Amino acid sequence: MTDTAFHHQLQGYSLTTAEILYRLPDHPKLLQSYLWQDYDLAPRFPKLTDFLDFWSTHLDGALYRVLVAHRRLIAPTEFSFVAGELRLN
Fold first, then answer.
1. Which among 28, 53, 58, 65 could bridge 21 via Cys, Cβ 3.0 to 4.6 Å?
2. 42: CB partners within 8 A, 6+ apart
3. Model pTM?
4. What are the angstrom distances between the C-alpha of 82 and each of 78, 79, 85, 86?
5. Longest dimension (CA), the chain
6. Are 42 and 16 in contact (CB under 8 A)?
7. Is 45 left (phi over 0), alpha (psi -120 to 50) or beta?
8. φ and ψ at 7, to 5 degrees?
9. CB 22 within 8 A of CB 34
10. pLDDT tens for residues 5-28?
């Protein structure tokens, strides 16, 4: 048995978290928060985009704001180890 999350990570996917703020249909001045999490590819986020398209066409709550957290958005793109060490006292 194989883990699909592991296979996604090998293909470049990383865990993506999105906080979706939307307006309540009956009370449009109030905002509700929804957390979405799945493995996705940065920077295009195809799974998140598909989910937001589904939301816009099938759900009544109008989207207000989407905040996205992903490893490639906050991690350095390149990391190298130093061959030596210099100490100052």
1. 65
2. 14, 16, 70, 71, 72, 73
3. 0.75
4. 13, 10, 7, 10
5. 66
6. yes
7. left
8. -60, -40
9. yes
10. 788 888 888 889 999 999 999 999
